[in-house]
Amino acid sequence: MKAMASTPLLSVEGLRVSGRRDGRTFPVIEEVSFEIQPGRLLALVGESGCGKSLTAAAILGLLPWGFAVDRGRIILEGQEVLGLSRTDWRCLRRRLVGAVFQNPLSALNPSLPIWRQVVEAAQLSFGLDGRAARARALELLEIVGVPEAESRLDDYPHQFSGGMRQRVAIGLALACDPRLLVADEPTTSLDLITQAEILRLLQRLQHERGLAILFITHDLSLVAEYADDVLVMYAGRTVESGGVRPFLDGPLHPYSHALLGAIPRLEAPEVRLTDIEGVPPSPFDYPPACRFAPRCLQAIARCRSEDPPRVGDEGHWAYCHRPCGPEGA
Ligand SMILES: Nc1ncnc2c1ncn2[C@@H]1O[C@H](COP(=O)(O)OP(=O)(O)OP(=O)(O)O)[C@@H](O)[C@H]1O
Ligand code: SF4
Ligand SMILES: [Mg+2]
C-alpha cells in the first residue's frame, strides 16, 4: 500500500485468529497485516474460505463462537482495541465503525419500522429523544438516497426492495458518523445496476466524509473500478498488497496473476481466461511453507520447504519465491 504521511485510521498487525476443533486449537488466519487511511477504500479479495469475513469479524469484535484473536494488534484511531474491556470496545466500535453485510435483512429487524432501527445506535450513543431521533433517521435515509424518505420512515423492511434495504442498512451503519465502514460483500446479492448504485453511494460517502472503507469482495472487476488499495488473501494469509494501479498493471504473486486472468474482458473477448486448478486448503490442512504451492504452476522445491520472502517495495509487495515479472508468470 502507498506510504502516506497521515496516520492510518485502522492498523492491523500480525493478526492471528484461531478456532477449536476436537479439543485442538488451530490458526485459521495468520500474520494478516494492513492499514487503511482515512478517505481510502481497501479491497480485501480472495477465494471463498480464505478468511476475509473472519478478518472483518475480528476487527468488528464479532467473531463466531469458538474463534478468538490470539496474536497481533488492531489499532483504531491510534487506540489498541484488543486490550479493552468488552464494554469499552463496544462503545468505541459503535462510535467509530459501521458494518454492512451481504444480506441487509440480517442487519434489520423485520418487526420494527425502519426509522427506529436506523437510529437505535445513535440513540444509545447520544441519548436522542423521540423527535430528534426521527429527524436523524430522516437525515440518514436522505444521505443514502432513499427516495421520498419522509414517507418511508414508518415502513417495515419487507416493504423495501433489496437495493433499498441495503441503502437502509448503510444508513444504519452511518448513524453514529463512523470513521470506518466494514462492507462484507455488500452487493453480492444485488443485480448489476443496483450493485453499481450501491457502490457509487459508498464511493460518495468515502469522498464526502473521508470515510475509510474495508470492502470485501470476490469480484476483481469491482476492485479495478472502486478500490484505492488491494489486499489479497489466500488460505488465511496475506499474499499480496498494494495500490490498485500497480497491482492491476503488474501483480507479483502467481495467485493474484491467476485471479486477474480469470476476469472476462469485454474489450478483448479473444483473450483466453485462466482458471486455477484445485481448491484452497482447509484450515485443518494448510500445507507447509507457501500454502499456494499445490496449485501454483511456478512452484519449485523451495516453495514447499521455506516460507516465501516478502518481495516488492513499500507501495506494492507480495510473499513469493518466484514473483511474476512485468510480463507475468
Ligand atoms: N462460524 C464458523 N464456524 C466454523 N468455521 C468457520 C466459521 N466461519 C468461518 N469458518 C471457517 O473459517 C475459514 C475462513 O472463513 P471466512 O468466512 O472468513 O472465509 P471468506 O473468505 O469470507 O469466504 P467467503 O468468500 O465464502 O465468504 C473457512 O475455512 C471457514 O470454513
Ligand atoms: S512461493 Fe512458490 S509456490 Fe508460492 S506462489 Fe510463489 S512461486 Fe508459487
Ligand atoms: Mg465471507
Q: Distance N terminus to C terminus? A: 22 Å
Low-confidence stretches: none
What's the architecture, going by CATH?
A: 3-Layer(aba) Sandwich
How many independent structural domains? 1
What is the quaternary state of this protein?
single chain
How many β-strands, per DSSP?
A: 12
Please identify the structural class as seen in this structure: alpha/beta
Structure notes:
The chain is of the alpha/beta class. It has a single domain, classed as P-loop containing nucleotide triphosphate hydrolases (Rossmann fold). Helix content is 31%, strand content 23%. It is built from 11 helices and 12 strands. The strands form 2 sheets. An 8-stranded mixed β-sheet has the order 6-7-8-3-9-10-12-11, sandwiched between helices. It has a 4-stranded antiparallel β-sheet with strand order 2-1-4-5, with helices on one face. A hairpin with a 2-residue loop joins strand 11 and strand 12 (316-319). Helix 5 (130-143) crosses helix 7 (162-173). The protein starts with 9 loop residues before the first strand and ends in a 10-residue tail after the last strand. The model has no long low-confidence stretch (mean pLDDT 90). Residues 52-53, 184 line the site of magnesium ion.
